[in-house]
Specification:
Helices cover 28% and strands 35% of the residues.
């Protein structure tokens, strides 16, 4: 049990021990019985979500002389789902720190603490319009993608994944004061025929859909979808249309 769990359980036991004590506090058998009853009552009251408490505490971030924040979309918690260690949990307040690829959660039993969930135990999570899945490349794929969470914007015969990142960079000095700024940099990937491709240009996107590239190009042009302005939408729509053509 992690430190946060232990502290909570100790406080819980202190409050509840009069309910469970059978004899005077000096009786070791009675004390052991009381602790066990407190533990049982704690887990019964908390339900299955206590399984999520095994992450470390998330202290937040230092905003001094920093513009922006390290989280995706907003620094506010959003209701979401997380598939964690084989179990799906719903209506969990979540944030995603994309500087560190870390999923942050808050629970009603620990109202003063945000918990950083254990990365290795997360299979997928979602909030807002995002669905993140963990990709673990094999030896052949490691030159293309890295292990981590990817925003899956489309899944079909072809799938589209986006790696959301923020990088903290220094801004030019103004009035003798140096400030840093979080800048988001997204990376785009397509999975086709069981292979991953990094999409860094419009030309490469069309090349991946070689046998239907002319049709895809016409479709994008007709719908005024431009790679330079909206790369995410362009890649996602191209993959959808390619799948329609090849079904």
């Amino acid at each position: 049990m992690r430190k946060t769990n232990c502290l909570f359980l100790l406080c819980f036991y202190s409050a509840c021990s009069p309910l469970f004590s059978q004899t005077v506090s000096g009786d070791s058998v009675s004390e052991k019985y009381s602790v066990n009853k407190a533990v049982d009552f704690y887990y019964s009251a908390a339900g299955k979500s206590t399984h999520l408490y095994n992450g470390g505490e998330h202290p937040g971030y230092n905003s001094f002389n920093v513009i922006g924040h390290p989280y995706l979309d907003t620094p506010a918690l959003q209701s979401g789902k997380v598939f964690y260690d084989g179990t799906e949990y719903e209506n969990i307040p979540l944030m995603y720190d994309i500087t560190d690829d870390a999923v942050i959660a808050k629970f009603s039993l620990l109202p003063d603490n945000n918990i950083r969930l254990v990365h290795e135990k997360i299979e997928s999570f979602s909030f807002g319009a995002h669905l993140f899945v963990k990709l673990i490349p094999n030896a052949k794929e490691k030159d293309i993608i890295a292990t981590g969470f990817y925003d899956r914007t489309y899944q079909g015969k072809t799938s589209v994944f986006i790696k959301r990142k923020k990088i903290l960079r220094d801004d030019p000095v103004e009035n003798g004061e140096l400030k840093s700024r979080y800048r988001q940099v997204d990376e785009y990937f397509i999975k086709k025929d069981e292979n991953y491709f990094a999409i860094t240009s419009y030309e490469l996107l069309l090349k991946i859909f070689a046998e239907k590239s002319s049709d895809v190009k016409k479709y994008l042009r007709k719908n005024k979808i431009k790679f330079k302005k909206t790369p995410e939408r362009t890649i996602t729509e191209a993959a959808k249309y390619y799948d329609q053509l090849t079904n």
